[in-house]
Each structure stands twice: as structure tokens, then as C-alpha cells.
Amino acid sequence: MQRGIMKPAMLLSLLVILLVACSGSPAASEDPAARGGALKVITTTGQIADAVRQVAGERVVLENLLGPGIDPHTYVATEGDIARFAEADIIFYNGLRLEAQLDRVLQQIGSRGMTVVGVGDAIEPQKLLNWEPEAGLPYDPHIWNDVELWQEAVIVVRDTLMQADPANAAYFAERSAAYLAQLDELDNYIQQRTAELPDDRRVLVTAHDAFGYFGRAYGFEVEAVQGISTEAEAGAGDIQALVEIIVSRQVPAIFIETTISPRTIEAVQAAVRSQNHEVVVGGQLYSDAMGEPGTGADTYIGMMRHNIDTIVAALGA
């Protein structure tokens, strides 16, 4: 590095230190009412934002960083993001290296006394799927695709809010209990819809490997063009291996994702066609982000219902 020139990552790190130092950090036990308002909560993903919304209702001021169509694997924090982080009472993020480019920033903020919680990091490791431990990536971060596992993340949100705002603890407990019951119903719904498919039709082919927990929980074999992170590029060998699976298993449909360009799936479809087999694009799945407002997939429950309905309709055709 040339003398006198800072890399962008170093500049962001310095900005984190300066902003957090200037803003101060509220005591974890301080009642937010004493500060004249509700807790200020920032979340990184729509799934976590919806969990906070369901548990806290109007008792928090909520801001979500990554909206519909934004890939958390590759998102890089801006100076504006860091300024907002410094003003928050609580920052919830997924963890498990989902927000790979944000990890360093969030860890630095947490190290300076602010409440920064990775909901996935709180889950017992034996319940998680492996990623690439030898590369320093121990666990698959896509935990929300197993509803039962996601309930544990909701409990982390509840407990954090109760500790930060004890005056509203009973309110958070009541709302979270109602939401967890709704998630039980969602889990049953997905299992019932899955049962409509014969075992040999439960092959789920997607753009990147975001549905491992979904496959484990609901009995699907999951195949993908890219790996667990979209930072890894798919090669010709990856596409050809997938083509062989689709042709040999007579898979009727493959799926694109809202946060990833459809080009890789379209390339797979073309390569399958060259093998004298037709496979359709069965629809669009919400993998790393939820849907736009008004789509029905703008809540976690709506997103999961959309995904299973789309999968069953396409693979059962």
C-alpha cells in the first residue's frame, strides 16, 4: 500500500470507531422510556426485520438495511449505513457469514459496547449444516428456510428486546408466543404441501445453494449451480454436473431466485435442451430476500408459503 493512502476497508473501520465513539453507547439495562422514546432497531435482512416487527409491534423504531432483491452475501456497507448503525440501540443481523462484507463493521461496532446480535450465531452448532470449515466458513447461514430453526432466531430477538426494554417485556413475550404459534402452523403447511409430491419428484434445483435447511427439514434433494455464497462464480463444470442430474432424474422444473441474475439457470436450461430433455423454469423463489410490498411475499410467512406453493406446482405438474 502506498504511503498516505488508505484502503476503503481501513477508511470504513476508522469511520466506525469515530462514529460510535461520538454517539456513545446506551447502557443495556437503561429503560428506553427514560431516553424519551422507543428502542431504535436496525436489521440487515427482511426476514429478521419481520421477526422484530412481529415481536415488538409499534414499541420499536425499526429500520431494515437490505430490501427486496438485495443480495446479503455481496452487500458492502456505505458511510450512511455506518452512521445509522451508530445511532441504533440494537442491531440484529443473521451472522454465520451471510453478510460477509458487513461482518467486520458489525464486529467492530459490537466491540465498542453496542448491542449487536447475530441471530444465527446463537443457534447450537449441532443444529446447523456445514459449509466449508477448512476455509473458515463453518456453517450454512440460510437458517430461515427451516421454519423450526427460524423459531429459535425469533426467540433470540424476543430475549434481546426483553433485556433491552424490561418495561415492555410482557408485551414482547405475548406477541412472540402468538407469532411462534403462527410459525408452527406454517411448518405444518409446508409439510402438508410437500406430501403432495412423490419422493422422486422432490429434487429442488436453484441458482445458488440457499435451500439446504429447507431440503433437510422437508425432505427435498437440493442441487444448485452456485455454492452457498453468491460470491463464488459457477463454472462450466458446475453447469454440466447439474445437467446430468436433471436429465438422469427427469427433473421437470428448475427455479430462479429474486436476488440472483437468471442467466445461470437459463444456461442450465439450454444445456439440458441440448441433451434432448426439456426442463421448464418453474418460477421465482425468495431465497436471501423477501418480496416487494403487496406481493404477498413481503412477510416471512408469506415468503415461505409462496416458495412451497411454487415448488409443488412446478414439480408436481
Strand segment count = 10
Assembly type of the chains comes to single chain
What proportion strand? 5-15%
Radius of gyration: 21 Å
The major β-sheet equals: 4 strands, parallel
Strand order of the largest sheet: 2-1-3-4
- Judged by helices, strands and strand pairing, the structural class is alpha/beta
Q: Kindly, what is the distance between the CA atoms of the first and last residues, rounded to a whole number of angstroms?
A: 58 Å
Shape: globular
Instruction: Summarize model confidence as the mean pLDDT.
Output: 89
Compressed to H and E, one letter per element, the order equals: HEHEHEHEEEHHEHEHEHEH
Question: Notable features of this structure?
Answer:
two-stranded antiparallel ribbon; 10 strands; 4-stranded parallel sheet; 10 helices; 317 residues; alpha/beta; disordered N terminus
Structure, described:
This protein is of the alpha/beta class. Helices cover 43% and strands 15% of the residues. It has ten helices and ten strands. The protein has a four-stranded parallel β-sheet with strand order 2-1-3-4, with helices on both faces. A two-stranded antiparallel sheet has the order 5-6. It is globular, with a radius of gyration of 21 Å. The protein starts with 7 loop residues before the first helix and ends with a helix. Mean pLDDT is 89; it is low at 1-11 and 25-29.
Short description:
This protein is α/β, with parallel strands linked by helices. The chain is built from 10 helices and 10 strands.
